[in-house]
Each structure stands twice: as structure tokens, then as C-alpha cells.
Amino acid sequence: MSTHKSASLLDARILLPAIGDAFRKLDPRSLARNPVMFVVAVVTALTTVLFLKDLATGAGGLGFSFQIILWLWFTVLFANFAEAVAEGRGKAQADSLRKARTETQAKLLEGESRTAWKMVPGTALKVGQVVLVEAGDIIPSDGEVIEGVASVNEAAITGESAPVIRESGGDRSAVTGGTQVLSDWIRVRITAAAGSTFLDRMISLVEGAERQKTPNEIALNILLAGMTLIFVLAVATIPSFATYAGGYIPVIVLVALFVTLIPTTIGALLSAIGIAGMDRLVRFNVLAMSGRAVEAAGDVDTLLLDKTGTITLGNRQATEFRPVKGVTEQELADAAQLASLADETPEGRSIVVLAKERYGIRARDMGSLHAHFVPFTAQSRMSGVDFDGSSIRKGAVDSVLAHVKSIAASASGTPADSEAVRNIQAISDEIAKLGGTPLAVVRDARLLGVIYLKDIVKGGIKERFTELRRMGIRTVMITGDNPMTAAAIAAEAGVDDFLAQATPENKLSLIREEQAKGKLVAMCGDGTNDAPALAQADVGVAMNTGTVAAREAGNMVDLDSDPTKLIEIVEIGKQLLMTRGALTTFSIANDIAKYFAIIPAMFLAFYPQLGALNIMGLTTPQSAILSAIIFNALIIVALIPLSLRGVKYRAVGAAALLRRNMLVYGLGGIVVPFIGIKAIDMAITAIGLV
Amino acid sequence: MTINGWLQILVFCGVVVLLVKPLGGYMYRVFSGERTFLTPVLVPVERLLYGLAGTSEREDQHWTGYAAAMLAFNVAGFLLLYLLQRVQGDLPFNPAAMGAVPPELSFNTAVSFVTNTNWQNYGGESTMSYLVQMAGLTVQNFVSAATGIAIGMALIRGFARASGKSIGNFWVDLTRATFYVLLPLCIALTLAYVWLGVPQTIGAYVTAATVEGAQQTIAVGPVASQLAIKMLGTNGGGFFNANSAHPFENPDAISNFIQMVSIFALGAALTNVFGRMVGNQRQGWAILATMGILFVAGVAVTYWAEAAGNPLVHALGIDGGNMEGKEVRFGIVLSSLFAVVTTAASCGAVNAMHGSFTALGGLIPLINMELGEVIVGGVGAGFYGILMFVIIAIFVAGLMVGRTPEYLGKKIEAKEVKMAVLAILCLPLAMLGFTAIAVLIPSAVASVGTPGPHGFSEILYAYTSGAANNGSAFGGLTGNTPWYNITIGLAMLMGRFLVIIPALAIAGSLVAKKTVPASAGTFPTDSTLFVGLLAGVILIVGGLTFFPALAVGPIVEHLAMIVGQTF
């Protein structure tokens, strides 16, 4: 979202077609979606008819009326233009997406067969059918991998050209139609019918074709319509007041007053703001399934963040070897390294690295040692090596202790060294308190010590959480760790709360609890077991790499699959709401100056004393009215960039934010039109328009 | 303007502010059903009344039920009062032998007292029997004020309660407002007024022989008791035609001070009740501060304009401020202050003729009413009125903190906005709409006392006063004509019920919502910034609508006066 990028988006390729669209949007059916601009269009059309009648009968003073009417039409066109520009930005994106949706052929597997297929068009596929996709093929539709592993190029959707792995089972089983398999093959069960695939939805979303007004937008429209009605009363009663005073006010002047008073600025820009908000998310590689979700993002009170990958780096790292009494660090390191040599997990590798860096223990060849690797299983919760009749195991402390006990029992007689056991427990408790994960190491029945695995909190994340706290957002860390470890990491990362030993069930109940307190909850997730929580959360961001179930349950999809983005999504939501509020405030505050421009001009003919209200010193009544209506039209154009870019959000807390925005848009809204109308008045007087 | 004058204004404001907490605390206990010193005496009375009405204090109503009860009660009150006037000639307590009041006037008066307006197209001492004054008008003075307080309480519950259905019981609120709040205070005030020399009798008018030997009939009656509720309940309907300018209705500076304080007392205290009920008194103070700023600004303008006087009079060699239409025992500062207080608070009692104020001095009372009587306002009515503006202000500016709008933890959504806009819309509709029609009707224009912009102001003032349920008159306009009786009556009905129903609908919608706990990201509604914002929205949304009308009324009159032109 750099300024460069948004500036380039206001280029001719978008602006030129938008001019044409501005005229096309004069269609009453399209205008009717926006009550304020519809009213402007209606009164403008009526005034035009009156003008044409006057023209035919040859009445005088038509030059002034003509200019007013011209600017009234400009007002409507500028509003249409703002919307067209906002849509144009999405259309450009949609066009590139459409290219990915070219006709594909699918290899439909027949019956139970795993190999026999027949070629059918991609659009003929039905939900539940299974297709084979091989290297070089385009995946014909959205689906779930049911067999095989393949690398897939998803650049068409995410814009990221590095291939990703898609495989059956687990959390990376979803594939998207329009992406291409680069190597290997997969069998895919189709999950979306033609026309309702992810790509289709994405296209219609970025184009704004399906754009529904959000709840807040509807409410704002009601307010704007209500204010328009109030001004109908204010203006419609004027002719009768004038009659009482023995004067007459031309219709064109009343129309000018009415149009300048009603909130045209926000009315004109409202839908552009909404479209631009969705667009900012798209640009950020996040797809919101509805505008409602973007609005909800701004309102989020509680963020549920997965520890791993969001708060901490993906993997824990060994940072220390802590031997029991009577064992040297060197001996423990040596055993730990042996046990981890064949361990391909990041934790295992970090043990080997630490042993090398700290104790100079070089890598050894497993084969020459006649060593045999014992992999980690969910039952044993240990891994290690067996060699030369002895065995080394490392693993969760309780499982290692259980292991020692069982050996001791079978070796009948040799009791477990109770002091070493106590020693191990003390060390591991200490490590857990520090937020680390202790891994006990044992050679045969002899406990050697503990490896201190540490979660590495991401750099800068603590500052982000401080920022969030200033925004009034509570962060809750979700982790499978035990409460003690979780508490330590939570303290280190600076989150407000944590949910330890998280399960899909207690995650869901945490969300429900928060919601019962009236809070809005955002979370992200990727696995199938995240789906209920994603669906329950007010903002559920599904990772694009995730399962189909997760993607269906969330109301946003992050194409980059980066859980940290949740924070930015909240900011974008807030930015959308702020922009709406700022322009509404500005629009309403503008009215003061407009009254002072038009009221004295309007009554001057029969109450010359009211000239004293002409505090701007506008040249003539005509120039005053014309300046006000020109200002009213031009301010729409002037604010298009702001409505597309959005008001800058600062994480400074509501009070400071409000003070700043009130100053800029409230006070600014009062002052700017005084200056603007005066300047326009001077300009049109200088060039002799009136 | 003098230092002494400003000191009097300051003392007035100080006393009102000092009363906020004790009165607020007491009313909070009353409406929360907690024990007060009157509980032992009044609970049996309450039980009896609830039993008769077939309800109970534990029985809470949905907003529609609450609204239906309120409407039924008001319709009944209207019919009763209308009938009383029509047949007063055949009823007792009529020593002056008043005949039946004409139908249009009875309609106007009945509506006027039921809506807490007390617009008086009649002269009390020359039209109404003691029975009508006491059993009709004074009763409505109590219950229309109690109705206002009840609606205020219902709306407060909308904010204070969460995830509920009911907003209280109208009958209980009405009863408690009358018996616990209005009645005890009025008894004390009546005694004070009697002590200060205000008559309280059901005896006949007194006939006196003047110094010149002529016979003079001096009207008396149960004045003090009506005076107490007329002020405390922000009703404003005088026992006498001259209202609080009459020496029997406002003998001296002390009675004047008590009257002004009692106009503001309950309205100001309600902000504190609100604060207590939503669990943060600062919220109430913020609203009172907004009212205070607008009030002091209004006083400053009126006092300045009246003290500065009329340059055309000065040119004749007569110095000093504008004393036209003012009682010498009150002078410029107390008349100016009274005028701003009575129009800010929807009371409508007057101790000076507003029509005789300078153009700018008379502009402020008009604006006060056009804003919807939200500066303290009528008891209850001012409070629910300003909450409509709070909703609009929050909705307009609340988005600027990057959250969808919320007030006190309640999301402000389409329904609330719709209802608030409806409530605000009905005022310009009645005020400007009827004025626009009236100024085109020759017979209606013929009623004005002065032609030109001042006459326009008279008509505008009449409808504004009616729709705002204020009841004060600008003077000059002959209002007792069928046209004005009926149209002002309609304006009063619109200004009352087209605000109450949306306010109750908002209460019903809010009460069902969850309360979002406040955080650092929440729009701060107890800050000075919010006070400024709310005042700004009230002036821009509520006030600017009337700018064209004011321009061709008081504003042009003032500007003309400067250049030496009168109308």
C-alpha cells in the first residue's frame, strides 16, 4: 500500500474509462442506490426542464441559470466518477484474474478407477467428482487433494510465483481452480461447481459487482437521507417567508441552496470509500467475502493469535544443555547430539547446531556407528538412537521418566536414581517457568540432563502488541503448550492473555465467552478443526494454504497465508470506518460557510440589511451562489484521492485519534469552504463569469 | 452588563450545579426501587394504586407496551381536561362564575397541558374556574412532567440494561415520579411561596376600593401550589395571564430565584441519574456540561443585547439598557436570565415579555426552543431530546476513531439513527411548516401585533414554542383564534409524541443489545472533546436548519435597527 502504488492507480488507464462510466451511471436505476445523489439528480433534471422552458419563452438572466445547472450536473457526474474510479481499480485486478479462468480440460476419473480418465471440459465438472491433475495441468476447479503430493504454482491467485506444496490429508489439502500443478500428480475431489469457484467469487468481489451495502453504510445512508429531508423543510419553507416579506426568490437559487446544504460530499463519496476499503484488502492479498467483515475488522476487540508462526518463529530452538549432578555438559551434549543426528525436525537440527557451536562436537556418520534411529511417535513421545547395545532417548520429561522407570523395573533390582529424577524435575520446572520446553535425555537407564528448547519470540512483535493495546485491542495467544510455558511466552511477547493447551473446543468456547461479553473476536486458522472457531469468530481469516473447510468457514481468506496479517486487517477495517466518519463530519461542517454565502445573497433584494451576513465579502449575489455551488462540486473531486487512499490510521488510542480528526475534518470542514468559496468567487469575478 | 449582574448569573448556575448530585442520587434511588425516607409512607399508596391499575412493580414492559400505556394515559388525560373546561360552568369551585370554554380553545388548552407545553391562549383569571385550575391544569402539570421523567428513565434503562427486553413499567415510573419526586418538592416549594407572599386560597376574588375611590377586582386563588409545579415540572402555565411577571405569582427577587432554580433542578439532576444508572457519573456531567456551555452562551448574548439596549432609543437621549416589557423589580439581568432559563428548559413561564426584548435578545429564546429544548430541557423531555442529538453526534463522528459508532457500550445502528432522525425531523416540520403556511394566510397574518420581520418572529415564535412544548409567548400575537388554537395544538402534539415514540423505540432497541466493554479504542464520551462535538452537532444539525427563518426574522430586525430602521 505504498503511496507510489496508489498514485499509479490513479493513472489514465483507470481515469479515462471512468469518465465514460460517470455518464453511464446517470441511469436512474444506478442513481437510486444513493439517496442523496438521487435527490440531486432529480432536482437538477427538474431545474433543467424549467430552464429549457424559459429558454423557449426567451426569459432573461439565463446565463446565470445555465451555469448553475451546469455545475449541478457536474455534481452528479463527479459523484459517479468517484465511484467509477474506485471500481476501475478493482476491474483492472479482475481482468488479470479472468485470464486465469480460461477454459480448462479436466481428466475426470471414472467410477472407482484411479487411473482411467476421460477428458471433459472444466465447466462440466460437478461437486464430488474426482479428477486427476498431473504436472503441467491447470487445476480445473476448487477441490481437495485426496491422494498425492504436488508442487503447485498459485501465482494466478496470490501473485506469488514460488510454488507451494499441496498434499492429501493435513492442513494443506485445498487446491484452487486456475492454479497449475508443476510436478508430480494429485487426485482432487471437486468442491465447487462451475461459476461459484473461489476465483469466480474473487473476480466478482474485486469488481464490486456483488457489493452489498454494509450495515454501517445503510445506517449512514439513513442519516444522510434524514438530513436531506430536514433541508427540504429548511428550503421549501423559504418561498413562503419571502412572500411574507414581499419578495420573490427564483427556483434556481432555492435549488442551489438546497443542493449545497444537503450532504453531497459524503453522499458522493460513500460508495467509493466502501469499494476502496475492500480494494485495499485485496491489494494486501486478503479477500473479504463481504464488506460486513471489513467493517467488523475495525470493531475487533479481541485478537486470537496462534503462538507458533505468529508470535514466535515457527520452531523452538535448543539454547542450553542442563546436565543433572554428576554429568558434565559435554557428556550431555554428546548424547543429545547423537540422539538428534537423524532427527530432521527443526528442534532436532537446532540441537546438533548448538552442540557444534558450543561444544565443538562434530557431526558423526550414523552408518559407521551402526546406529539405528528411533523416530518420534505419538505413543512414546520420544525419539533417539540405538547403537552398540545401548540406547539414547530424548523427549518430553514425563515420558522419559516413565521410560526410565520401565527399564528399571525390567532390569529387576536397579532402582531409578531418585536424586537424578528430582534433579531432572527441578530443572525442567525451571525451564518451563521461563517459557521454554524441556527435553529430557537418557542413556539406557541413566538420566543425563535436560535440553532447553526455547521459543523465539519474533522481533518487533512486542511493540505491535503495545500498539494494539493502545488501539484498545486485547491479544490472546493460543498455544498447545502447558500453562506454565504459555505464561512465560505470553509475558515475553507482551500479549494480554493466553489460552494454553488449546483444543478446538476450548478455542470455540473462548470465542463464545468473549462474544457474550459483547466483544468482537478475530482469529485466523487453517486446519479443518479450526473451522468451527473460524465460523464463530466475527472476523475469521482462513489461510489460503488451509483446508477447504477452513476456507469455507472464514469470512476472509489470506492469500499469503500469513497469520501476522490479522493486525493489518484490523487496521484496514479501522481506516475504512475512519474515512467514512471523517468525510461525513467534513461534509456537515461545510454547511456553515454555505449558509453564509447563500442566505445574504438570496434575501438581498428585499432585505438589503442582510448584506451584513456576507462576511466573506463575495462580489455579487450571483457570484456568491455560483461560488458555493462550484465549491460544492469541486470538493467532491478534490476528496476522491482521500476517499480512495483512506484516512491514515495511527495507533494512538481513540481519544488522541478523535482529537486529531476533529481538528482536521471538523474544524477544517468549517474553515476550508470559507476560503474555498471566497477564492472561487474572486476567480469567477476576475474572468467575468457573472 | 455589570459585575453584579454576572455574579447573579454565576450564583444561579452554582446553585443548580450544587443540587445536581443530591437530587440525582435521590431520584436514582427512587427509580431503582431502593429505599428512601418516603418509602414507609408511600409504599402502601403505591401498592394500592398498582393494585387498582392491575399491575405491579415487578411487571416490566416491552417498549411497545410502555408506549401504549403512556399514550392511553395521555389520551385519557386530554379527554378529561377537555371535558372539564367545556362543563366548568356547571361544576363547583367556580366563584367567578366562569362559563364553558369554547371548543377550539379547550382543545388547545387540553393539548397544551397534556404535552407539558402550557401554551396559554386564555387568560387564567378570566377564563378558568378554580376547579379547572386545580383538578385539571395542576393535575396535568404533575402528570405531564411525570410522563417526561418516565420516558427519560425508560431511555436511560435502554442504555443501562443489556440483552434485555423490557424498559420498565410506565405506571410505576409515573407513580414514583409523581409521589416521590414532584409532590414532596412541590409541598415544600408551595410553603416557601406562601411565605414569600404568593396567595393560596379557594376564596373569591377580592374587591378593593382604590385611592381614587374606584372599585377594583383583584384576582387571587390557589396560586402558590400551581406555581410550585409550574416551575418544577417545567410546565410554565401561569395562574394569571401575566404569568411570573404578576406580583402575586412572583413577588420579589427571592421568589424569582427559587423559580429559576426549580425550572432547572430536575432536568439537570436527570443527567446525574443517567450517569449513575450507566455506572459512570462523568457521562452525566459531560451532557450537563454541553447544556451548560450552550446555556451560558445564550445568557451572555441575551444579557449583552438587553444591557446594550436600543441605539434608536439612545439617540433620543435616553441611556441604559432595554427595559421595555420588563418588571423593574427584576431588572435587565434577572429578566434576561429568566428568559433564557425558561426557553432553554421548555418551561415557558415568563417574568418579562420576550417580544419586547431587543432583536438579538429575543433571538436566543427562539434558538433555545428550535434546538429542541435540549439545554436542560423539560423534565425528562430535555434529557431524551439531547440523547437524540448524542446519537447523531456519535454516529457522525464516532466513526472517526475507527470503530462503528457506539455509546456507553451500545452499538448505534440503522434503527437508532432512523428513530433519532425522525425525532429531530419533526421539530422543523412543525415549526417551519406551520409558520410557512400561516404567513401565507391573510387572517393568520392579521393576528400579529407588529407587521414586518417582528410580526414574522411572533408567528415563528408561536409555532416554535408550541412544537418545542415550551409554552412561552412572544407577545403581540393574538393566538386565541380557531386557526392558531388548532394548528398550535397540532404542533404541540407533534413536538411531544413524535419525539417520545422514537425515543421509546430507541430504548427498546438498545435494551436488547449487548454492552460492549469500553477500551482504549472506544470513543471517549466523557471528555471535553465530546462536549464540544455534541454542542457543535446540536448547533449545526439542530440550529442551522432555522438559519433562513431567523435571517428574515430577528436577524434582519437587528441589522435594520443598527442602521436606524424600525418596522
UniProtKB/TrEMBL annotation, chain A:
<keyword id="KW-1133">Transmembrane helix</keyword>
<dbReference type="InterPro" id="IPR023299">
    <property type="entry name" value="ATPase_P-typ_cyto_dom_N"/>
</dbReference>
<keyword id="KW-0630">Potassium</keyword>
<comment type="function">
    <text>Part of the high-affinity ATP-driven potassium transport (or Kdp) system, which catalyzes the hydrolysis of ATP coupled with the electrogenic transport of potassium into the cytoplasm. This subunit is responsible for energy coupling to the transport system and for the release of the potassium ions to the cytoplasm.</text>
</comment>
<feature type="transmembrane region" description="Helical">
    <location>
        <begin position="663"/>
        <end position="689"/>
    </location>
</feature>
<comment type="similarity">
    <text>Belongs to the cation transport ATPase (P-type) (TC 3.A.3) family. Type IA subfamily.</text>
</comment>
<feature type="binding site">
    <location>
        <position position="394"/>
    </location>
    <ligand>
        <name>ATP</name>
    </ligand>
</feature>
<feature type="domain" description="P-type ATPase A">
    <location>
        <begin position="103"/>
        <end position="207"/>
    </location>
</feature>
<feature type="transmembrane region" description="Helical">
    <location>
        <begin position="64"/>
        <end position="82"/>
    </location>
</feature>
<keyword id="KW-0067">ATP-binding</keyword>
<feature type="transmembrane region" description="Helical">
    <location>
        <begin position="624"/>
        <end position="642"/>
    </location>
</feature>
<feature type="transmembrane region" description="Helical">
    <location>
        <begin position="595"/>
        <end position="618"/>
    </location>
</feature>
<feature type="transmembrane region" description="Helical">
    <location>
        <begin position="218"/>
        <end position="242"/>
    </location>
</feature>
<feature type="transmembrane region" description="Helical">
    <location>
        <begin position="248"/>
        <end position="273"/>
    </location>
</feature>
<dbReference type="InterPro" id="IPR018303">
    <property type="entry name" value="ATPase_P-typ_P_site"/>
</dbReference>
<comment type="subunit">
    <text>The system is composed of three essential subunits: KdpA, KdpB and KdpC.</text>
</comment>
<keyword id="KW-0633">Potassium transport</keyword>
<dbReference type="InterPro" id="IPR006391">
    <property type="entry name" value="P-type_ATPase_bsu_IA"/>
</dbReference>
<feature type="active site" description="4-aspartylphosphate intermediate">
    <location>
        <position position="306"/>
    </location>
</feature>
<feature type="binding site">
    <location>
        <position position="343"/>
    </location>
    <ligand>
        <name>ATP</name>
    </ligand>
</feature>
<feature type="binding site">
    <location>
        <position position="530"/>
    </location>
    <ligand>
        <name>Mg(2+)</name>
    </ligand>
</feature>
<dbReference type="InterPro" id="IPR023298">
    <property type="entry name" value="ATPase_P-typ_TM_dom_sf"/>
</dbReference>
UniProtKB/TrEMBL annotation, chain B:
<feature type="transmembrane region" description="Helical">
    <location>
        <begin position="6"/>
        <end position="28"/>
    </location>
</feature>
<feature type="transmembrane region" description="Helical">
    <location>
        <begin position="177"/>
        <end position="196"/>
    </location>
</feature>
<dbReference type="InterPro" id="IPR004623">
    <property type="entry name" value="KdpA"/>
</dbReference>
<keyword id="KW-0813">Transport</keyword>
<feature type="transmembrane region" description="Helical">
    <location>
        <begin position="330"/>
        <end position="350"/>
    </location>
</feature>
<keyword id="KW-0812">Transmembrane</keyword>
<feature type="transmembrane region" description="Helical">
    <location>
        <begin position="421"/>
        <end position="441"/>
    </location>
</feature>
<feature type="transmembrane region" description="Helical">
    <location>
        <begin position="130"/>
        <end position="156"/>
    </location>
</feature>
<feature type="transmembrane region" description="Helical">
    <location>
        <begin position="357"/>
        <end position="376"/>
    </location>
</feature>
<comment type="similarity">
    <text>Belongs to the KdpA family.</text>
</comment>
<comment type="subunit">
    <text>The system is composed of three essential subunits: KdpA, KdpB and KdpC.</text>
</comment>
<feature type="transmembrane region" description="Helical">
    <location>
        <begin position="63"/>
        <end position="84"/>
    </location>
</feature>
<keyword id="KW-0630">Potassium</keyword>
<keyword id="KW-1133">Transmembrane helix</keyword>
<feature type="transmembrane region" description="Helical">
    <location>
        <begin position="528"/>
        <end position="551"/>
    </location>
</feature>
<feature type="transmembrane region" description="Helical">
    <location>
        <begin position="285"/>
        <end position="305"/>
    </location>
</feature>
<feature type="transmembrane region" description="Helical">
    <location>
        <begin position="253"/>
        <end position="273"/>
    </location>
</feature>
<keyword id="KW-1003">Cell membrane</keyword>
<keyword id="KW-0633">Potassium transport</keyword>
<keyword id="KW-0472">Membrane</keyword>
<dbReference type="Pfam" id="PF03814">
    <property type="entry name" value="KdpA"/>
</dbReference>
<protein>
    <recommendedName>
        <fullName>Potassium-transporting ATPase potassium-binding subunit</fullName>
    </recommendedName>
</protein>
